[in-house]
Design brief:
The chain is α/β, with parallel strands linked by helices. It has six helices and 14 strands. The protein has one domain: Metallo-beta-lactamase, Chain A (4-Layer Sandwich). It starts with a strand and ends with a strand. It binds zinc ion (2 copies).
């Protein structure tokens, strides 16, 4: 599998849209890996994960053709992952298609947002639930329950193809025992995991800071979910965490965790 990280920023990206903190200023001045658009990824060029506000810019930057997408999987309803207005551009009158060229998979909350936005539009949306596996083309996908929004079944995604396994875990929070118990039964070839709060734990339990991210990875290594050679990459970084890309490399490197960046390709 080939996973391309299209965006690796938190809710308002880096530089934060209206922020003038140190990390945002550094990113504005230096560009490169310090500029992070809102979190999204595409697997093997066809399986799109989340639809952030920068989708159009991300596909131009990385020379990706959205017409190749066969499936669009939403992780949860937050607007940095679910820019619902962008879906309309896949349909008439913006293009000649009178039905969506890709399937949408989403939890109940996201489906509610899509239905409210497009009450009359022809769209087939498949509802997904934590730990209920489904198949999309060559992919077997199991939504893994995140601990991110109270009252919403937010998903991290276990994606399998040809015996290879990836867990895409943005907006995880501290997983519950149920999620850890499930993950104990899985051996991952690669993990993409959020590290939103960087050096600055926010008190909000729905995200991980560096310490919690490292602890989570260590726990997965202890139980064999991650082999010593499984690749671990971070995503969903907030400027409020106070960590530049080079800081993340310095702090995460010794733990064999690689900070992700926009456009990064992971091959397993
Ligand atoms: Zn998010
Ligand atoms: Zn979120």
């Amino acid at each position: 599998m080939k996973i391309r990280l299209l965006g690796t920023g938190g809710a308002d990206g880096i530089p934060g849209l209206f922020s003038n903190d140190e990390v945002s200023r550094y990113a504005r001045a230096n560009g490169g890996k310090d500029v992070r658009t809102r979190a999204a990824a595409v697997v093997d060029g066809v399986l799109k994960i989340d639809l952030p506000p920068e989708t159009a810019m991300q596909v131009i930057r990385d020379r990706i053709d959205p017409r190749d997408w066969t499936g669009l999987v939403f992780t949860h309803s937050h607007e940095d992952h679910c820019a619902v207005s962008e879906i309309q551009y896949a349909l008439f009158p913006f293009v000649s298609a009178d039905s969506l060229p890709f399937s949408i998979y989403a939890n109940e909350a996201v489906i509610g947002i899509i239905k409210a936005r497009y009450p009359e539009w022809p769209m087939e949306v498949i509802q997904t639930k934590s730990f209920e596996t489904y198949v999309h083309g060559p992919f077997t996908i199991t939504p893994v329950q995140a601990n991110h929004i109270e009252g919403e079944d937010c998903h991290n995604l276990l994606i399998e193809r040809d015996g290879q396994k990836l867990l895409y875990a943005t907006d995880t929070g501290i997983w519950t025992a149920t999620t850890f118990d499930f993950l104990k039964t899985v051996v991952l070839d690669a993990l993409v995991i959020e590290c939103t709060d960087g050096f600055a734990p926010s008190g909000y339990q729905g995200h991980l800071d560096i310490q919690a991210c490292v602890r989570t990875v260590q726990m997965l290594r202890e139980v064999g979910t991650l082999r010593p050679d499984s690749q671990v990459v971070t995503t969903h970084h907030s400027h409020s965490g106070g960590a530049r890309h080079c800081d993340l490399e310095r702090v995460l490197g010794p733990h064999n965790i690689e900070p992700g960046f926009d456009g990064m390709i992971i091959e397993i």
